[in-house]
Amino acid sequence: MRVEIWSDIACPWCYVGKARFEKALEAFPHRDGVEVVHRSFELDPGRAKGDVQPVLAMLSKKYGMSQAQAQAGEENLGAQAAAEGLDYRTRDRDHGNTFDLHRLLHLAKERGRQDELIQIFYRANFAEERSLFSEGDERLVELAVEAGLDADEVRKVLADPTAYADEVRADEREAAELGANGVPFFVLDRKYGVSGAQPAEVFTQALTQAWGNRSPLQLIDQGAADAEACGPDGCAVPQQH
Amino acid sequence: MRVEIWSDIACPWCYVGKARFEKALEAFPHRDGVEVVHRSFELDPGRAKGDVQPVLAMLSKKYGMSQAQAQAGEENLGAQAAAEGLDYRTRDRDHGNTFDLHRLLHLAKERGRQDELIQIFYRANFAEERSLFSEGDERLVELAVEAGLDADEVRKVLADPTAYADEVRADEREAAELGANGVPFFVLDRKYGVSGAQPAEVFTQALTQAWGNRSPLQLIDQGAADAEACGPDGCAVPQQH
Predict the structure, then answer these.
(1) I want to staple A198 with a disulfide (CB 3.0 to 4.6 A). Which of A108, A202, B45, B97 is the partner?
(2) Would you write out chain A's pLDDT as a tens digit for each of its 241 residues?
């Protein structure tokens, strides 16, 4: 069974929702049969690279709320994160474009390091004093190396804005096709969806339901033709074609 | 859409079937939306590592056929392969246990080199004078390096028989659960199956049918609760829990 998670590194509910999903997955009896894949979704794709803003200023400008109201929202998120055992800085985070982060997550996927890198990005963004947006590309190189990637390869990808760009766009197109308007968005075997950072119980229900409804395959063949296949008893050699 | 292909490197119909599938995929209009994953299947799991036999001797002993009959079967396979533009040695190949090959293919998957390695293994086994079974581990290292893997990492995996063993067994368990008794076995979105090296037209039909029947997601949630999610318009902050 496969679970795809659309998310953005700049999305606090994605950070919290991933922990809730993982709590459900850890307790799921068939967890060894579940493969998790991360998919790209940008919350703020129109923002230029290098256009960085403090999170509170961004929130209060975007919603016309006071700094205090924005801060209260962050405190709520901090409490939700803490309830999942996650550190969350409710002050002095900043916000920016995440396209390069997603490109690096696709490189990491190819190198078998995607889960490591997404966790390191989340932690740097939400829990640590290590901005993903204000410190230039070398901060991303530093984090990617912690995830087990090769520094030179990471620099090469960052220097070429077309590298893995198609992969990011393809994920975003698929999100739209699947009806995801926001993230986190969880898709189980392309059959069941969970939208948002739902409680772990909802993920347990989704995993259980998707596992129980793994459907038998519908075989497609050419009717009467012999199957040209090999099995434990040898390879079939059809007599004619 | 995802296509999983269960196969064994020692399986000639897998070699031919992969080429037929790829012909269909190349012509498929939505090919950029198709992800291909290779899964492990051993035709001869009971054979000990190092127990190597010429293919013709193995065939004639296993089926009680004459050397000439076994040779005729190989000639037929060679003709089928040639029709797909593949080289095929109809003489002097050998046969052995493929567990280590599958373990390396799982390493390659993690490093983003699986498709390269499976192609190199097939070519070495069926087309070239480079035995996968008679030359010891260094032959496998040589081929894995050609696929872009790191020699030391490959040697480490070969030296540790538990490395990626669970992944191989999990693939084989899934094949059994899906009803695959032989390979190649193609599974599209866990919904449609194609058994055997069917003609490219059958794969075209399967791809078309699976693409057209990508089903809308069934959303699982907790009913009335607000979704804790972030979208282009910001992050929802539910008022109560």
Answers:
(1) A202
(2) 899 999 999 999 999 999 999 999 999 999 998 999 999 999 999 999 989 999 999 888 887 888 898 899 899 999 999 999 999 999 989 999 999 999 999 999 988 899 999 999 999 999 999 999 999 999 999 999 999 999 999 999 999 999 999 999 999 999 998 889 899 999 999 889 999 999 999 999 999 999 998 877 888 876 545 678 888 777 875 443 3
DSSP string computed for B19-86: HHHHHHHHH-TTGGG-EEEEEE--S-TTSPTT--EEHHHHHHHHHT--HHHHHHHHHHHHHHHHHTT-
Query: What is the number of other CB atoms lying within 10 angstroms of the CB of residue B80?
Result: 23
- Closest alpha carbon within chain A to B231: A182
pTM: 0.70
A190:B189 CB<8 A: yes
Q: Do B183 and A219 touch (CB under 8 A)?
A: no
Does residue A25 fall inside a structural domain?
A: yes
CA distance B184 to chain A (A): 6
Could B228 and A13 be called an inter-chain contact, meaning their C-beta atoms sit closer than 8 Å?
Answer: yes
Residues of B in contact with A235 (CB under 8 A): 11-13, 73, 77
B20 burial type by CB count under 10 A (0-12 exposed, 13-18 middle, 19+ buried): buried
Range of the domain at B175: 1-50+97-211
Provide the domain count of chain B: 1
**Does B235 reside within a domain?**
no
CATH number at residue B173: 3.40.30.10
Mean pLDDT score across all residues of chain A: 91
Smallest CA–CA separation between B130 and chain A, in Å?
Answer: 22
In a domain, B221, yes or no: no
Closest Cβ opposite residue A182 in set B10, B214, B229? B229
B238 min Cα distance to partner chain A (Å)? 9
Domain for residue B176, yes or no?
A: yes
Asked if residue B224 has pLDDT above 60, the reply is no
CB pairs under 8 A between A and B: 196
> How does pLDDT run across A187-233, given as a tens digit for each residue?
999 889 999 999 999 999 999 999 998 877 888 876 545 678 888 77
Cα B16–Cα B74–Cα B80 angle in degrees, nearest 5: 35
Contact state of A220 with B236 under an 8 Å Cβ cutoff: no
Tell me if B50 sits within 8 A of B94, measured CB to CB.
Answer: no
